[in-house]
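Hello,

I think I submitted the 2-acetamido-2-deoxy-beta-D-glucopyranose job twice by accident. Can you confirm which output corresponds to this input? Input:
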Amino acid sequence: MAVTSRIMLMTCIIASLIYISTTQTCSNYTFSTNQVFNSCIDLPVLHAHLHWNYIPSTTSIHIAYRATQTSTGWIAWAINPTGTGMVGSQAIVAFQNSSGIMTVYTTPITSYTPSMQPGTLSFSVSNFSAIYANNEMTIFAVFGPLKNGTTINHIWQAGSSVSNGIPQTHPTSGPNVQSMDSLDLLSK
Ligand SMILES: *[C@@H]1O[C@H](CO)[C@@H](O)[C@H](O)[C@H]1NC(C)=O
Ligand SMILES: *[C@@H]1O[C@H](CO)[C@@H](O)[C@H](O)[C@H]1NC(C)=O
Ligand SMILES: *[C@@H]1O[C@H](CO)[C@@H](O)[C@H](O)[C@H]1NC(C)=O
Ligand SMILES: *[C@@H]1O[C@H](CO)[C@@H](O)[C@H](O)[C@H]1NC(C)=O
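Support: Only one job matched these inputs. Its output is below.
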């Protein structure tokens, strides 16, 4: 093999290794809370990861949604049970309040200018909490019973500011409008 092709091969291998180590990190991630999730996915945008356990007996999912964020920003994860976009999604949002305490609550997204105030979702959400550590916010919650099978449309989101306890608008282009997908809960 010519020297140049060896160099190119090595470059490819190193690039792949760097790619794997920087992006494929959900499966070996250890929670400081010692919780274990059997399934996870490294989401393609917003430096986000979803970990979950699907509980067949209750058709519920126990999730941990984590994403890189600054201390003044917010993160959210949602299921849209009636469509694929933002409107109609049933969200859980987390941020540090002005006392520096992680705050987490559910909020239904009823329009493109949602109130982002606490509200009830169309399905039950229980046992929720949030933490902020190592420049990452994590939301823990149990969603369900989910009545429509094991494939969900999920959406994740982030914004850089919170004002008077209300998460402010996120960017409306780029990664922030690519952050939705269909997810088969039994696929991982
Ligand atoms: C997961 O594995 C990757 C690749 O081996 C490594 O770079 C990363 O540090 C690991 N992450 C944790 C949290 O152990
Ligand atoms: C199931 O789907 C129907 C129709 O799309 C929707 O109205 C309902 O909210 C969904 N239920 C759950 C629990 O996701
Ligand atoms: C922040 O959250 C904590 C815990 O819920 C609460 O005690 C505190 O009053 C909140 N601070 C503000 C400014 O809302
Ligand atoms: C409730 O949440 C806590 C902390 O996230 C977790 O350790 C526990 O397993 C959860 N319980 C249920 C029933 O999901």
